[in-house]
Model the fold of this input.
Amino acid sequence: MQAFWNFEQLLGLSPDHFTIRSGQGNAKLDKWQSLSNRGHFVWGEYKNRNRSPYQTALDLNHMHFSCTCAGKKFPCQHMVGLNLLWHHNADEFEHTAVPAWVRLNQTRFLQYWHRQQKLTHTLISEDELAELRRGLAELERWLHDLMQHGLASLPERPKETWRTIANRMADVQAMRLSQKLLDLSIINNSQPNWPERYLKRLSPLAMLLAAFDRFEEHDLATQADLLTAVGRPFSPPLDNQPPLHDQWLVLGHQVELLGQQQHHHTWLWGLTHRQPAQLTQIIRGKHPKGVRYVTGSMLTADLQYKTSHTPLLAQLGTKPILNRAPAVQIETHSILEAVRHINQLRVKNPWLQSYPLLLRGMRPLFENGRWTLLDQKQYALPLPEKFSYGWHLQALTGNDALTLFGLWSPRHFSPLSVEVNEKWIDLHTFRGIK
Amino acid sequence: MSLWHPITKTALLGTRREPLPKIDRITSPLHHLLSHTKAATPELTLLLQAGVLAMHEENGRLPQQHHAPHPTPPQPEERPVAPPRITKYLADVMYGQHIGLLPIYLEAVNEAGYRLPNHYLPNLLDKGVKAVKIRPYLQPILGKQGGWLASQNPIWDFASPDINSWGGLTRYWENNEPVKRQQLLNALRQTNPELARQLLHHYWRSVPDLTRSQLIKSLNTNISMADEPFLEAALDDRSYQVRQKAADYLAYLPDSRFALRMANHVRFVVQWRQGMIKILFPREISPQMRRDGIPQSDPRKDISRLRTRQLTQMVSSVPLDYWTLEWKASIPEILQAIPHSRWPRTLLNAFATAARKQRNQAWIEAMVVNRSFDTQVARLLRVMEKEWLDRFILENQPLFVANGTNLKVGHPMMSVLQNYQHSWSEELTLFWLEQFANYIQGSSERKSVDMQIKMLLIRFCNKLPAALLPFVEELFETAVQQNPIWRTPTQQIIKTMRFRKAMLEDILGNTAES
Done:
């Protein structure tokens, strides 16, 4: 199974470049007390000085990983290390019976899988909605007061002001709203256009609140989009369409921190239906465990989208069959087409803040201290201000243009992976320099 | 006027002080929409108007076309890209446990004729910014693509192919700060000393005194008689520091006009009388002597310190053959006489400096043996060539025998190992390993590992031929049985050796030897 992926792709399992380094450090035989495998199970006991060893297990059939370490990252450095060891030194693994703790992990994972399959019909209970509304009403009053006294009063207010209202939003689990309010606290009041910058970020919140006032009048898809926009964790019901059977190419990962929860998003692209999908799993607390597909692998599976005006979030209907991704020419947008397409989507869902894009024929350009992507018609798409991988992308171009996957947002495009020699590689494996 | 202006004005002052902006509904559909935007309170109406405007800006915007030309594509590559069996070591040697092996890795990849994959180039170039020593190994393995990339980022100029042309060099010089110019000159002196001196000469008059005194230091690398005219002219520089450096570097050239003059200056100052060295300091320092860097007498300064400087400057700059020919005395006779002179330490230092600068083997050998390999003169071994050093060590082998008690700072074995700059021959390797094993076995009474000896052993093992690994493993295993405190350090050393062996075998093939 490990032959599907190359070394760089396996490194991409790591959530960041710190884990890449520590994971590579852990991919040494002498760091492990025992290494074993049977069938699609691979497990090992990582030496932990004088304490009991960490137990790390990989279920390569489902790409489900677990570890007993105290790390909060997923996959942790031990999972990455074990994956790399299995890739390079499979002969060193003892072929033994699967121990009870590995079996237990497998059972729990299957129970979790079946729970996920249960259909939900309502978005949010009445009590939960009432609680959320109470919180949003407070935000509305807070915005009202702020506008009454004027933004000029902001520089005199302590930064704690933002934190207080952000915490209130977190209390009612409006996690994205909370994060947006915290982001406002870092706006520099000494810049000449600071009032406009505040206004451009505060005003969409007011529009969201106005839309929430008539929550019950909206259709189910709009309600789901509104709950997604405020960041209230919920399980949207599946849409009415039949599941899509396709070969889903794994194109990247993104970790979103919403309060104490890590939302791990996996981005897929249907080769037949030519559309993106997003799988999301929530990782909580210590002892990380979950599913992580290697970027560049392919899942043959039925996928059911969840209700939205811009369907993206989806759920696997069948257990996926993992394959090597075929070397196919994926149909992509030019920059102009992509932006027009997103503009049309935002007419349906004005709260849409990010959307996956697959772009071919891109060339990076560094100008005035900022990276931009140019397509063959010279249309430009700005990259984030502190983009760490610009020179890596430039190094990959030369005579050839690039095929990139990433997330569009109203301000810029954030690349997540790039196609190198017909294999998709996560950008963070390049360990960026600014 | 932008619609943002009236809305921001009201938002800034607050709706208590400033009414909602009046928006003309006829001007455009956006104006029409804004004028119809209403909420329960003026405050929320204002925010909704701003929201409509922000959303209109975001949604109504289409990407712009860019008309800047792309950089010229790189030339076709000449080297094949390194396969995964080679690139898998990069993370360890760049960021991991074996960071000290990076130069060996880069050199081996270069020797094997590969270049590194394109996505590693930015990290390697970035490494080269700080680690100046790896730059000579870097350039060939970056390939054409690496050079092309480096030419686009000013901080990577050192790897740009442009830097190899006169135009590129002058451009780099004019666009960079003095520290970078200094780095450029240092690197260029290693590969093309002639070109480096020409570049220095080209800008010599245009740089300030302090910078000149730094830049001239680059001539310390690969100095030759071709640099003599430049250095001779620098003796007349207006900066004292530059004049001192020029005199210092001219002392490396025993055939220079400066060396001839120094021999004349010293003729009446340092004399040989009946097997004794007599020093007669001149009453006055002539203008010619001052030009050659001999400090002038000054009643306000400490006279003994002044004499030390004068004597050092003169003796260390005279060709060493002068003493044996002029005094008709052998080197051992002269060395025997030094302790009986009135300036023994100064004279010994001055002769040692002269021997180092002139790379005079006969003097170095005599001084090292005469002084029983003490740390002061053992540094002279650094400038000697491998063949001479190996023969020298073998001839004096009994001096280097170590046991558990005698191995410490100042022991001939430590002096030689600390100053040997080449890779060891098999015969000497086995000899040194035997001494280390003797030390480990014999020092079992010590409660902790001597850090200096540990570092010396690590440094020594980093240069060992990879084929000796089984022998080293067995030797250390036997030695640590009697002295377990050395188990962890020796295991670390063996781990690094294994890594280096595997790395070199993967890069160069099974016959790889470091």
About this structure: Chain B touches chain A through 60 residues (CB under 8 Å). Residues 466 and 501 of chain B are 5 Å apart (CA to CA). The mean pLDDT of chain B is 86. The beta strands of chain B are 270-273, 276-279.
